[in-house]
Batch of 3 targets.
Target 1
Amino acid sequence: MDPISPLEQALHAARALVLADLVARDVAEADVVSLVEESIAQRRWWVEQWPDGAAFVAGLVAQDVQDALLERYGRWPLCPVCGSGDPHALDVEPELGPDPHWVCHKAGVRVASVGSLGGAAGGTVSS
């Protein structure tokens, strides 16, 4: 059996992290999972062109899925920190970097790492 390449490892990890967040927020329907697969296919090409970007794939896939969901269904993931005012989505930070996490800019808190929304109830203050 051939070992899995670093590119494929990064793509599989990104898929797993984003799917975990979709499951945690009860939106992992078949058509939504298809959005993840579309992003993975596009990001595969991107990482083939820029192998050093493999560490950034999870955040990019999360952003791709978030953008696709906004176009089709509405904001996702909704902020679990702010209890009043208009519902708003979390953002991914850094936009292009390793260790992506979901952030509420309104409250100024880091809510959860990408892939860890299931355990997010509050947040920690962003620096």
Note: The longest strand covers residues 109-113.
Target 2
Amino acid sequence: MNICTRTLSTTALALLATVGPAAAVAHAQSDRDCSDFVFQEEAQAVFDSDPSDPDRLDADNDGIACEDLPHRPTATAPAPATPTATAAATAVPQRGVNAGLGGSTGPADFEVVGGVGLTVLGVGLATGHLVLRRRRRAVLARRH
């Protein structure tokens, strides 16, 4: 194997080994969804602490976070009499982003840049491989 090809391959593998896991860790650091909260008031407190809404807790942009979560019971409210009523009060909606349950609306900027970078690297390596292969064939053809 040519030293140039070996160097390019080693560099590509090193980049994939270091950037891939780092991107997954960076994405998982602090993204919170409505499913991380039991009551709407908890989600609203997080939303109010940073109105830019990096966690996308307010899907319809009306200023109310996680609208489908149940509200915290007040001291004056009577306790539910049946187990069914208790289950209904603590159930978590399952409708995803359309119900205001947070979640991603697309890839983050660093994911797009990383994907484009890895694509360009892959195309460059494939092109380099083809060029080297054609040069070797030309050299072999001249020898015969």
Note: Helices lie at 3-27, 40-49, 83-90, 109-143.
Target 3
Amino acid sequence: MTRHPESGAGEAERLLACYDALLERSTRMLAKARDEAWEALIEEESHYVLEVERLAREDQGQALDTAQRERKASLLEQILEQDMEVRRHLVARRDELGELIGNSRRKRDLERAYRHPESAVIEAWKRFPEGTP
């Protein structure tokens, strides 16, 4: 089956429109990360993954002219830059949560250690009757 040049051009433009949509989703994800809207970011990310999978299927074997390849490369570069910034925000959040968990564990351990101090002290007179050498 041969493709008409017009249909190939239309498919290429549709593919680039998908990359544009992915960039828009990436931009929304970055805004959520900057705002520390973690639940909303996770929601956006789940849609992002689906879009990437769909785009990977559509992109296979798609012939693009020079201008279209340059446009695709530019879109991918922007997407990757935003992805790196989102990851930096996520790593900072992970570190923050790790610190909070560590503080919580230390606090719990201290509370356990000092909760019942009378049980930690051994009273010698109970263990050794009078007159025991």
Note: Helices lie at 5-34, 38-59, 66-115, 117-120, 124-127.
